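Hi Y.,

Following your request, here is the sequence exactly as I used it, all 428 residues.
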Amino acid sequence: MNSDNLGYVLREFAERPLPSRRPRELALPTDSGKVVGLAGLRRTGKTFLFFDTIAGLVARGVDRRRIVYLSFEDDRLQPISPGQFDLILRGVREVFPGAPTGRLYIFLDEVQNAPGWERWVRRVADTEDASIFVTGSSSRVLTRDLASALRGRSKTFEVFPLSFREFLAFRGIEAVPHSARSDSQVRSALEQYLTWGGFPEVATAEAAMRPLILEEYASVMLLRDLVERHAIRNEPLMRALLRHCYRNTASFLSLSKLHRDFTSLGFLVSKNTLFDYMAMLEEAGLVFLLPKHERSLRKQAHNPKKLHVADTGLVSAFKAGTGLDAGHRLETAVFLECRRRQRAWHYHSNGGDIDLCDAEGRTFFNSCWSLTEADAVSRERRNMESAATRLPAASGRLLYHEYAPELLATVPGAQPAWRWLLEPDGGP
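Below is the corresponding structure, written out as tokens. Let me know if you'd prefer a different format.
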């Protein structure tokens, strides 16, 4: 990192207006005494959460010269070596010699591109009057590195694409209680949300641009967050695995079966390689793997995982096809909303399917796109009754989109998915 370039970057940020932003539900603590981490996919809005936090600091009277924002995707800061981080504090003092004294607020964006960042952050957190914020595109790596380096002095938040509530706000749609017109508008918006997902840029883009934006995101995530980061030599295999995952969201994943399928397609791949590639997808936050609800960890390990993808809009972008069952997309949207609230979720499948249950067995969810046919209603009623028997202390919901009023009353715990997705606590 060149000190002159750093000086230009520091002054440029201090003098330019903050970009326009739309509010998100997540608000970052600014003086908690902990290093705050934001982890999540690219383009989910981590940088704009930074800018929103910075705007709040400025509104409180913090001088812009006491606020440092650096993106390590800025070519002017590359390459950077671990020994060059001290240039940041030195640069602030040199560029702004007349700045008022007081706490420094340091925002470091995409720190995975800056090797050795965690040791420097720990030292600054220990020795300087500074609040530090970092983002990274790998949830597991960022959380692990912060926890290892700071030993309890960090807090990491996962940043997801827009929730359905945020999606409506970005679209300027208000859910009006007891209004049939509003209900219809929100139901239609849910179908759009499941089709195009929750990336902020996509939510506000023209219809013709949405698939193009998502295809660009998919390409960047594949190349930057997987192939380049892990030096993957078999890019066609990783691309095929990613496509498989997005074609089969809300489905069970068996690596043995997947290995046989890929071998039959002509891929020369071992089970261990597939296992490693799946771990990379999970580490990047592109997929989530739910274990079966079992008391025994050994039994959990011997059962297949249930797969969910990070955003339903990316399904089409990864060329998985647009005809994926809407029920699978709905189940994944329900999972993502639950994951925003709590990290640990399982599935249950002994004597009846439960899409999601918490680790303690206090809450469970099933979802079904359509409750218009008697067979579907009968199946879902049996599943809900079975779940109530096996988890007697739990409260549960069956979330649906289409329904027949005369059949709906026979299903316990049934609620429109759109209405539940709008509940601020996401609970049963």
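The chain is about 45% helix and 15% strand.

Thanks again,
Q.
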